[in-house]
Design a protein that fits this description.
Layout (H helix, E strand, L loop, with lengths): L1 H22 L14 E8 L9 E6 L4 E4 L5 E7 L2 E9 L9 E2 L11 E3 L4 E2 L4 E2 L4 E8 L9 E6 L4 E5 L5 E7 L2 E9 L9 E2 L12 E3 L4 E2 L4 E2 L4 E8 L9 E7 L5 E6 L4 E7 L2 E9 L7 E2 L12 E3 L4 E8 L4 E6 L9 E4 L5 E4 L1 E2 L4 E7 L2 E7 L12 E2 L3 E2 L10 E3 L4 E2 L10 E8 L10 E5 L8 E4 L5 E7 L2 E7 L8 E2 L12 E3 L4 E8 L20 H9 L6 E3 L2 E3 L8 H11 L23 H9 L6 E2 L5 E2 L8 H11 L23 H9 L6 E3 L2 E3 L8 H15 L3
Helix pairs in contact: 2-7, 3-4, 5-6
Length: about 725
């Protein structure tokens, strides 16, 4: 009776629901039903003697499922959402008799994907499993070391397997998919007693001999004798409340400071093994926030830390250190900055410790030794941000580390409010085309300075070959692109040689388009000046000056500079004018006409030629001697006089009204300055009250190039 009542109740509910749905407006969707699922099925075949019941099939895609096959090798995996799947076949046994494989290939990247449509049963995904091949051999170890502690790992570009050696040192690794393998002999025993080695006894993977393995092969005789490793043991005195295993000791190669081997400090004792004969530096890396990370000797950087030299297989004991209470620096960044990279550095820029985020807009730098530091933001190479690199406090990186404020911390102190300022950097944009003229997609682009004074920024090209690299400071940068498998790098200036690359300039808030770098039109180029960027003021005049040999600039460490904003000294002015005049024949006097110019001084011939031509008479001193003052900058009014005399003091009547508000009629060199203006060699500056000449302002090297270029256009020579 009760069952009949329940049935009637369910029927009533169904009828009510139908009535409600019938009253819904047209187009109103009924509640969704679960999407139909599909399945994958097939048959697995194994070699004779292999138990097919041990095989498992795993599908990976929108749904993940693992299932064992039945005694006939058949499987059906159901409940799969629509989508693309990889199918893996693996023997769940130890030892294995067949190697794991994917449908269509032994490796995932080359496997055949299976498309499952909604509600569709995909059949025929069959797999023939194979015994593959094996690599066998014997590993010999030094006295006092167990062969059974050694692990033998074999790997190809896409497949790897391994095994632990037997007590007698023999090993048997397999089954392996066909391919070429390297063999690595190693151990996880601490301290590591042997030197890890690739067959046949080399330390680098690139030097290892490849072992070819085919189906059914058993490659024997791959034997290796391991050499004893050096071990450095010592003590690090820890505070009583130190967190166990909160600090580990690292041995780093003394030349590049890369970690070679590391081990936890256990109750103040450590032993770092696995070391070749050589020279090392010790670094203590802390995770307990109360303890400072430091170099051996209690130092924040490696430079002054003592080196430790060990011979082959040596067991060296004795280095002692004491853990130091750590200081911490914290700060926050503006919400619009999204994220901030922070580093604590020494006065010479050596990075001591990096920071990490502690919240959406906050960060901390822990584990600092007591001392005085500087803090830099957004200056890690490769860190992607629109924010300009800067130093604390609110100093753009282009101002230089030397101008940055210092911060001092003591042990146990937390220094707060060391905050960066939100400032969007400049942007360099452009486009990269390949040899055929098509856009290069996902090509890595690097924006850098040769001397490393400004942080390197990176980006990748988009589908149309364009790129945008942002977060840049005021300065001159080089741009390089190096697409994988391409024709080598290409550089700004559309050249294929870094030496001949042209720099480009930008500043915060400015977008500079460097144009298109096109492999089809790029050349090797010619070297000019790294500090004269493309489209710089007076770029054409400076390059003309260099092409005529009037100025060769400076070369150092593969870089060539012109120093455009440096003032021209009087000795260099003499050299410029001598060269502009075509280097006329002239024998310098055996006795200098100037008290402050010794015979043989730099530009001695050019200066004495200038005096002989009466272009410069120098100064008469109180003792009636003459001086030239070679290292004194040339002012703009004196430069006008030099050029007027170089031109042979042509007939010229100075105007009765000065064309410049800051050069009154009758001023020193008034005639020469107005002559210079009349020739169009100098146009001065437009001011609100008229034009100015700035007669007492030193002439910079870029402006001098312009003056020389215009003079030559008017009067010739060379």
């Amino acid at each position: 009776m009760r069952a009949i009542s329940r049935g009637r109740f369910r029927l009533a509910l169904i009828l009510v629901a139908g009535m409600i749905l019938a009253t819904l407006p047209s187009g109103f969707a009924s509640p969704a039903v679960a999407a139909a699922t599909g399945s994958i099925s097939g048959t697995v075949t194994v070699p004779a003697g292999v138990d097919v019941n041990k095989v498992k099939v795993t599908v990976s895609g929108p749904t993940y499922r693992t299932l064992g096959v039945n005694p006939s090798g058949e499987y059906t995996i159901v409940g799969l959402a629509a989508g693309e799947y990889s199918v893996r076949f693996e023997e769940d046994a130890s030892p294995k008799h067949v190697y794991s494989t994917y449908y269509g290939s032994a490796v995932y990247e080359q496997s055949t994907r299976v498309d499952v449509a909604a509600g569709t049963a995909v059949t025929g995904i069959d797999q023939q499993m194979s015994t593959g091949g094996r690599i066998q051999g014997k590993v010999s170890v030094p006295a006092g070391t167990k062969a059974s502690d050694m692990y033998v790992g074999v790997s190809s570009d896409s497949y790897q397997e391994g095994a632990v050696a037997s007590p007698d040192g023999s090993y048997n690794v397999g089954p392996l998919a066909p391919g070429d393998y390297t063999v690595l002999f190693s151990t996880s025993v601490q301290p590591i007693p042997v030197l890890h080695a690739y067959y046949p006894g080399v330390k680098d993977h690139e030097q290892a001999q490849k072992i070819a393995v085919a189906d059914g092969d058993i490659v024997t005789g791959i034997n290796q004798a391991l050499k004893p490793a050096a071990i450095i043991s010592g003590r690090l005195a820890l505070p009583a409340d130190a967190v166990p295993f909160s600090i580990f000791a690292e041995a780093r190669s003394s030349n590049d400071l890369q970690a070679v081997s590391a081990v936890y400090v256990d109750n103040g004792v450590y032993s770092i093994g696995g070391l070749e004969a050589g020279t090392y530096k010790l670094f203590f890396n802390a995770s307990d926030i109360k303890i400072a990370s430091m170099w051996h000797g209690g130092l924040p950087t490696a430079a002054a830390s003592p080196t430790i030299t060990v011979a082959a297989g040596e067991r060296l004991t004795g280095p002692t250190d004491t853990a130091v209470p750590a200081a911490t620096i914290t700060g926050s960044h503006a919400s619009g900055a999204s994220n901030t990279d922070v580093q604590v550095v020494t006065a010479d820029g050596t990075v001591v410790q990096g920071g990490f985020s502690t919240g959406p807009q906050s960060f901390m730098v822990p584990h600092l030794l007591p001392g005085t530091y500087k803090v830099q933001f957004n200056r890690s190479s490769g860190f992607t941000t629109a924010q300009e690199g800067q130093y604390y406090s609110n100093l753009p990186e282009s101002s230089g580390l030397g101008s940055a404020a210092s911060v001092t911390v003591t042990g146990g102190q937390t220094l707060t409010n060391i905050n960066p300022t939100s400032r969007v950097g400049g942007t360099l944009s452009g486009k990269i085309l390949g040899p055929g003229g098509a856009p290069l997609i996902n090509a890595p682009v690097r924006v850098y300075t040769k001397d490393g004074t400004l942080v390197t920024r990176k980006a990748n090209t988009l589908v149309d070959g364009t790129f945008n690299v942002t977060g840049l400071s005021t300065g001159n940068y080089f741009v390089s692109a190096a697409p994988e498998g391409g024709s080598g790098p290409i550089f700004s200036g559309n050249v294929l040689s870094e030496t001949n690359a042209r720099s480009v300039s930008t500043a915060p808030g400015r977008n500079t388009d460097i144009g298109t770098l096109n492999y089809a039109t790029a050349t090797q180029g010619t070297q000019v000046f790294d500090d004269v960027p493309l489209n710089a003021q007076f770029e054409e005049e400076i390059l003309w000056l260099a092409s005529k040999g009037i100025s060769t600039g400076w070369e150092a460490n593969g870089s060539k500079t012109y120093r455009p904003l440096s003032p021209v000294n009087r000795d260099a002015m003499a050299a410029f004018m001598y060269r502009l005049s075509g280097k006329p024949d002239f024998t310098a006097p055996g006795v200098s006409p100037f008290k402050d110019l010794p015979v043989g001084a730099q530009f001695y011939k050019e200066i004495t030629w200038l005096a002989d031509e009466a272009i410069s008479t120098g100064w008469e001193e109180a003792d009636k001697t003459k001086t030239y003052r070679p290292l004194r900058p040339v002012n703009r009014d004196a430069m006008a006089a030099f050029m007027y005399r170089l031109a042979g003091e042509p007939e010229f009547t100075a105007p009765e009204v000065s064309p410049f508000v800051d050069v009154p009629v009758g001023a020193q060199f008034y005639k020469e300055v107005t002559w210079l203006a009349a020739q169009g060699i100098s146009t001065g500056w437009a001011e609100t009250t008229g034009k100015s000449f700035k007669p007492l302002l030193p002439v910079n090297r870029d402006a001098m190039a312009a003056f020389m270029f215009r003079y030559h256009s008017k009067f010739g020579t060379l």
